[in-house]
Amino acid sequence: MEITWREYNLLIVSDLHLSEGRDSGSRKFSKNEDFFFDEEFARFLNHYLDTLRWNDGKWHLIINGDFFDFLQVITVDDAPPDLPPDSEPHEFGLPCGERETVCKLGKIAKGHWLFFESLAGFVAAGNLLTIIKGNHDVEFHYAGVRAAFLAELQAAFRRRLEREPAWGRNREIGNVDADTVRFSDWFYYEKELLWVEHGNRYEGFNSFKYWLSPLLPEIPGWPPGRKDEIDLPFGSLFVRYLFNRMERVEPFADNIKPATRFVWWLFRKHPITALRFAFGDGRYLLGRIRRAWADVLPEAWKVRKQQHDIRLRQLASQSGIELAKLEDLDRRRARSVLKEPDWRAKVLRIVLCPWRILTVLALMVFVFLLSVLFAAARFLADMIPDFVREHLFDPTVHFLRPVAPWAVLLVALAGLALFLRWLLTEEEKMGPSYLKKRADGIAKPDLLGVQYVVMGHTHDAELHVLGEDGGRNKEYFNTGTWTKVVSEEEQLIRKPVEFVFVQGLRKKDGLKLKLLEWNDGAGEPRLLKLFREEKIAG
């Protein structure tokens, strides 16, 4: 019998960020791990499995991006020996190819065995699962990774039946297969009702050039056997080559949002570590950026664009969305920082700002005058009175001669600092509610006209009314994250952990969504408490 997915009630979560988990030998967690709530998530699923039963207990769980954090799986000690060689040092973990990611997936499943067993049991009990890829698990693009996940889920279910034989006897057991577990390249959509996507496409740090074909074109000089590599955006390169290294010192460094706050926190709390990175791994990071950007010829992207466009047409046909509207949605993504042609215009904005012009000009004048001084010192010496030369000119030149190279270096570093400050501050200026603006456009009648838009990505739970259409309020939800809140400022208004999710019930008058929080102590969901935004009169 064909499953009608729209008959199921909905549970939507995002940004779980499962990584290597607990090592079975040492029984300790990886310092790159962000998800420590396998038991809590199991109790969350069991609640909806056993306690609440609407529409005969049918539930459709949507994991809306960043389910796994493949970027933070860095252990390579048990990597398959037949993987293609790669020039990348192993301290950064395996690359992002298909077979490498399958290896990472196996490590995640092993470190989070309880999570996998609970999820498999939830599906086997007659419920559905959809996984939407995010920027941290974009490797779900690979068919091999999807097949490996399904195999891991099936293996976990068999282990659960062996460990809890009574669990299987007390309920009707269904299948854990391609009919009950599905994968989405971009979104989940119900006509006039619901649009769900991760949201990274609308932020330049984590936007991909071609989201439906997120691979780099083949680069000349690739090692033999290397045929694919994920086109990692700027934010992912930061995680792989900066955050993973910093988490050896501070295990939750990557939870500090946005990136601006993390950079200044790093220089304030760990200046020596920051400088070591700047003159060590930082150079490797710049090399990877160059490889992913400058080393790829523009015409090499043609194949990826063709693949992206083909998949776009397929999605339009499968979802029932007009191709023109889906293309419009695709064009609304943010341009990828440092990886698309218009970055040059952004760099020019640095020097167009008045205070930056004055700062840069002052530094240039200083370097110019210093250079002129040393160039003319030999000629000026004969023209200056002996007393002035002996007591003023010669001591000044003697003092400045060893300082000059450092002055030039400081000028270069100051210019770089100005650029990085602008680059990172652009992300902070957007704020988490930039997704609300995108949701508002999606919900308008001339585009999709849906009642609800759900996103994740920012790690900030949100609820906004988008407007009214035919007497129905349209709403935007952000499901936040199940990882820890690190910054002291955020902990003043948020609990260290918030298990946020969206619950959707099918009722006679339509689908009703609520933004809830799983209260593990009480063993039940409760409404998430959010502060109202107040307008300050000016």
Explain this structure to me?
The protein has 16 helices and 12 strands. With 538 residues, it is an alpha/beta fold. It folds into 3 domains: 12-183, no CATH class; 185-214 and 228-337, no CATH class; 345-430. The protein has a 7-stranded mixed β-sheet. A hairpin with a 3-residue loop joins strand 5 and strand 6. The longest helix is centred in the C-terminal third of the chain and has 45 residues, at 386-430. The radius of gyration is 27 Å and the shape is elongated. 36% of the residues are buried.
Write the layout of secondary structure elements.
Blueprint: E1 9-13, H1 38-51, E2 59-64, H2 98-111, H3 113-124, E3 128-132, H4 143-163, H5 165-169, E4 181-184, E5 187-190, E6 194-197, H6 234-246, H7 259-269, H8 271-279, H9 281-293, H10 302-319, H11 323-331, H12 343-352, H13 354-381, H14 386-430, H15 434-443, E7 452-455, E8 461-469, E9 472-479, H16 488-491, E10 500-507, E11 510-519, E12 524-527
Question: Which tags fit this structure?
Answer:
single chain, 538 residues, alpha/beta, 3 domains, 7-stranded mixed beta sheet, 5-stranded mixed beta sheet, 16 helices, 12 strands, elongated
Give me the secondary-structure category. alpha/beta
β content, as a range?
5-15%
* Spatial strand arrangement across the major sheet: 4-3-2-1-10-11-12
Question: Which stretches are low in confidence, meaning pLDDT under 50 for 5 or more residues running?
Answer: 348-352, 487-493
Shape: elongated
By DSSP, the count of extended strands is 12
Q: What is the ordering of alpha helices and beta strands?
A: EHEHHEHHEEEHHHHHHHHHHEEEHEEE
